[in-house]
C-alpha cells in the first residue's frame, strides 16, 4: 500500500480572482512552461464567459463547471486469482478536481478551428450546464462503475 503524501506543493492564488483552484487550472492549461500564455488564455476565456452569460462573475461558472465535471465513482483494476476485475470505488475530492480539470482541458484542446480561449470558454459554459465532452466523459465513467457494481465487494 502506498504511503500518505506528506509534502504536497500548494499553489498560491491567482492575481486577478484570488483563487487557488483557478491557479491550479492555469497550471493544467500551461504547455512547455509558458505560464503567462496560459494566464492570458484563461483570462480571455473568462472575458468571453462574462459576455456570453448574464453572470458578471465568471469564477462562479468555473466552480460550477468543476463540480459538474468531477466523477463521484470510477473503476480500478484489481487482480484476483489470475483474473482482472474492474472494481468501482469512490473518488477522493482531490482526484475528482484533478479529473475534472484534465477532462475540461482535453475537451477544449480536442476541439478544432477556434482559438484556445474560445474553446475553453465554450467548454466551461457547457460543463456548467451539464453538457459537453467533459460531462460525457464523467457519465461514461459512472456507467462503467455502475456496470461493474457486482464487483464492489472486492474493493480494498
Automatic annotation (TrEMBL):
What InterPro entries does the annotation carry?
A: Ribosomal_uS7 (IPR000235), Ribosomal_uS7_bac/org-type (IPR005717), Ribosomal_uS7_dom (IPR023798), Ribosomal_uS7_dom_sf (IPR036823)
Name a single GO cellular component: small ribosomal subunit
Q: Name one Pfam family in it.
A: Ribosomal_S7
A biological-process GO annotation? translation
Question: What are the residue boundaries of the Small ribosomal subunit protein uS7 domain, all occurrences included?
Answer: 2-149
- Its domain of life reads Bacteria
Any one GO MF annotation of this record: rRNA binding
Question: Looking at the keywords, is Lyase present?
Answer: no
Task: Enumerate the UniProt keywords alphabetically.
Answer: Ribonucleoprotein, Ribosomal protein, RNA-binding, rRNA-binding, tRNA-binding
Matching entries from HAMAP family are given as:
Ribosomal_uS7_B
Its annotated function is as follows: One of the primary rRNA binding proteins, it binds directly to 16S rRNA where it nucleates assembly of the head domain of the 30S subunit. Is located at the subunit interface close to the decoding center, probably blocks exit of the E-site tRNA.
Q: Summarize the subunit comment.
A: Part of the 30S ribosomal subunit. Contacts proteins S9 and S11.
Question: What family does the database annotate?
Answer: Belongs to the universal ribosomal protein uS7 family.
Query: What name appears for this protein in its UniProt entry?
Result: Small ribosomal subunit protein uS7
Q: What is the lineage of its organism?
A: Bacteria, Candidatus Nomuraibacteriota
Amino acid at each position: 500500500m502506498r504511503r500518505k503524501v506528506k509534502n504536497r506543493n500548494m499553489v498560491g492564488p491567482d492575481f486577478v480572482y484570488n483563487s487557488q483552484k483557478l491557479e491550479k487550472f492555469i497550471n493544467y492549461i500551461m504547455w512547455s512552461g509558458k505560464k503567462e500564455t496560459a494566464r492570458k488564455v484563461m483570462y480571455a476565456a473568462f472575458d468571453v464567459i462574462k459576455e456570453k452569460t448574464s453572470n458578471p462573475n465568471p469564477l462562479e461558472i468555473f466552480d460550477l463547471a468543476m463540480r459538474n465535471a468531477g466523477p463521484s465513482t470510477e473503476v480500478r483494476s484489481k487482480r484476483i486469482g489470475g483474473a482482472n476485475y474492474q472494481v468501482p470505488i469512490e473518488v477522493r475530492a482531490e482526484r475528482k478536481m484533478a479529473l475534472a480539470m484534465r477532462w475540461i482541458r482535453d475537451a477544449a484542446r480536442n476541439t478544432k478551428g477556434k482559438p484556445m480561449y474560445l474553446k475553453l470558454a465554450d467548454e466551461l459554459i457547457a460543463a456548467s450546464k451539464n453538457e459537453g465532452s467533459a460531462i460525457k466523459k464523467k457519465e461514461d465513467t459512472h456507467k462503467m462503475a455502475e456496470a461493474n457494481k457486482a464487483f464492489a465487494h472486492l474493493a480494498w
